[in-house]
Write a structure and sequence with these properties.
One of its GO terms (cellular component) is cytosol. This protein is α/β, with parallel strands linked by helices and about 600 residues long. The protein is built from 23 helices and 14 strands. The strands form 3 sheets. An 8-stranded mixed beta sheet has the order 7-8-12-11-10-9-13-14. Strands 2-1-3-4 form a 4-stranded parallel beta sheet, with helices on both faces. The protein has a two-stranded antiparallel ribbon with strand order 5-6. Helix 9 crosses helix 21 and helix 11 crosses helix 14. The longest helix is centred in the first third of the chain and has 16 residues.
Length: about 600
């Protein structure tokens, strides 16, 4: 059935892809030249000195030590984000032994090359630690480079799943782009308290109608076991993206942890990584694989599934690591032709387990290929182009891993629809521009009547200030909350989730409210219109620092406008409002990241410390 899928690609998709390739020609050529040179040098392990090699296998068992000493088989590096505090990463505890065993059966070896930090935005929401969250992505990239710097590996597998971890691992992997790379997910936790019920309890708590005991019980029923959180935030968007870009095995993203199928997929991923090295005849380096077409496929997947706005930062930074220059205009143009096929919380009531049961990634990829919205002629870790990703894994009667064609029809059209009858004709993301700079807005969860908001500004310099005003009862009527000095240079660009319950309460009371901020909200943005990632940011001379209380602002997600309706002469005479950022620069390790705040780029270039 896969062979019957049309091969043509939509004209706009092709146009944007070509535009990216043209823009990136010089940087991409230099990158490919660099990784080709690294590949020509061949596997480095055998070229190391005897003492260097002995250090590298001193702790191995006799058979692995013999294999590494002789240098005959491939050696697989494992870069892991395991820790047992975070639900998404706890299942990775047992993966290294599964991978080592698979490597031995395949005639190779595997070693844990190193660990990378894995922090949870859910734990740090509204706390000082959140101001390190975005920077942790670049720390993870640096840590990945350190892990692979021993140059004793012929390929690598990457164990990471959540918000900043996967993008950081991709950036790090691309710095060793001559090596094959396979990403191995752990899967989502089983369904608990429905996400819409959890959101309702949060809002009732914000209104003072239920106590903390009720809130804690709801949260504990929602986040209750191993695996990713089940809403469609950044972590699960990561998994979609890794699959649609060909870095996962087909159908691997949303299989629950600690199941026989999950273990079978992990074993197969290790085997596949070993088969892709330069020692064999099927060499697929990750730096060559992740080309312009692969990144366009990732952005199309983001739009088609209504994924996390964080990826307007992450995909740009990831692509730059491979010499590819993406812009927010590319995101916007691709959104204009990509149908929205999914309704998963916060864009609907379903969670990712319901999405997977309704047809999941195999169905989405099949529909997008058939609609001409994906490049099918790309390299993947599975080796058969993107058509193979319409299949789904299963266990054969003998317990072995097998593959079957994915469903041709949605199992639940309230969750997942085909490209001929989507939830909306365009993707759930819009680029905004105007006197305040550029921003993005996620529209897929916002009622159409709220896509245009014109109201006076209420200015705050932290989410705590807004919450205090809400609790004091001083927020009333229509307004647009401007929460500024929340960008990467100011304080690391934290997510501002705790703004959503009070703004949601006010919206439900009939007020027209919206948010404009140079901070982040991520995949859980929800039902309140929010222009986020405003750039230039307030701390970098952005016009958002000029806004005063009462200024009329127009947020128009239909026309793509973010305008301030102030007399131009008055506007031109204004000076930026200063802010005391010192409290955000010390404590909880923040003093260690002064160099990051000084070096970080703008939101539309990925908010990265690395040169682009």
């Amino acid at each position: 059935m896969a062979n019957a899928i049309p091969s043509g690609v939509n004209a706009r998709i092709g146009e944007v892809t070509e535009r990216i390739a043209t823009r990136s020609r010089d940087t991409r050529a230099r990158y490919l030249e660099r990784i080709a040179l690294a590949a020509e040098r061949g596997p480095s392990r055998a070229k190391l000195g005897c003492a260097n090699q002995a250090h590298g296998f001193a702790a191995c068992g006799p058979s692995d030590k013999s294999m590494l000493r002789e240098g005959a088989g491939a050696n697989l590096g494992i870069v892991t984000a395991y820790n047992d505090m975070l639900s998404a990463h706890q299942p990775y505890e047992t993966y290294p032994e599964l991978i080592r065993s698979a490597a031995r059966r395949a005639g190779g070896t595997a070693q844990v090359a190193g660990g990378v930090p894995a922090m949870c935005d859910g734990v740090t929401q509204g706390e000082a630690g959140m101001e390190l969250s975005l920077f942790s992505r670049d720390v993870i990239a640096l840590s990945t480079a350190v892990a692979l710097s021993h140059q004793t590996f012929d390929a690598a597998v990457f164990l990471g799943i959540c918000d900043k971890i996967v993008p950081g691992l991709v950036i790090g992997a691309l710095s060793f782009g001559h090596l094959p790379a396979v990403f191995i997910p752990a899967g989502p936790m089983t369904s608990g308290l429905p996400n819409d019920e959890k959101a309702k309890i949060r809002q009732l708590f914000a209104e003072g109608k239920v106590g903390r005991d009720a809130l804690m019980e709801a949260e504990s029923q929602s986040y209750h076991g191993p695996g990713t959180c089940t809403f469609y935030g950044t972590a699960n968007t990561n998994q979609m993206m890794m699959e649609i870009m060909g870095l996962h095995l087909p159908g691997a993203s949303f299989v629950n942890p600690n199941t026989p199928l999950r273990d079978a997929l992990t074993t197969a991923a290790a085997e596949r990584a070993l088969s892709m090295t330069a020692l064999g005849n099927d060499y697929v380096p990750v730096g060559r694989m992740l080309d312009e077409k692969a990144f366009v496929n990732g952005i199309v997947g983001l739009h088609a599934t209504g994924g996390s706005t964080n990826h307007t930062l992450h995909i740009v930074a990831m692509a730059a690591a491979g010499g590819i220059k993406l812009t927010w205009d590319d995101f916007s143009d691709l959104a204009d032709v990509t149908p929205l096929l999914c309704r998963v919380y916060p864009n609907g009531k379903a969670d990712v387990n319901h999405f997977h049961a309704a047809g999941g990634m195999g169905f989405v990829i099949r529909e997008l290929i058939a609609d001409g919205k994906l490049h099918r002629d790309v390299e993947t870790v599975w080796g058969d182009g993107l058509d193979a990703y319409t299949q789904e894994p299963m266990l054969a009667p003998d317990g072995s891993l097998a593959w079957r064609e994915g469903t041709a029809a949605s199992g639940d059209e309230a969750v997942l629809r085909g490209a001929t009858a989507p939830f909306q004709a365009t993707g759930g993301l819009k680029l905004l521009a105007g006197e305040l700079g550029r921003a993005v807005i996620k529209t897929s969860a916002i009622a159409p009547e709220r896509h245009v908001i014109e109201a006076p500004a209420r200015v705050f310099h932290s989410q705590e200030e807004l919450q205090a005003a809400f609790k004091a009862g001083s927020l009333s009527g229509d307004f647009i909350a401007v929460v500024r000095f929340q960008g990467p240079k100011a304080n690391g660009m934290p997510e501002l989730h705790k703004l959503m319950p009070p703004l949601g309460v006010l919206q439900d009371r009939g007020h027209k409210v919206a948010l404009v901020t140079d901070g982040r909200l991520s995949g859980a943005s929800g039902k309140v219109p929010a222009a986020i990632h405003v750039t230039p940011e307030a701390a970098d001379g952005g016009a958002i620092a000029l806004i005063r209380n009462g200024d009329m602002i127009r947020l128009d997600a239909v026309k793509g406008e973010l305008k301030v309706m102030v007399d131009p002469e008055v506007w031109a005479e204004r000076a930026p409002t200063p802010a005391n950022l010192a409290p955000s620069h010390v404590g909880v390790g923040r003093e260690l990241f002064a160099a990051f705040r000084a070096a970080v780029g703008t939101a539309d270039t990925g908010a990265s410390i690395f040169a682009v």
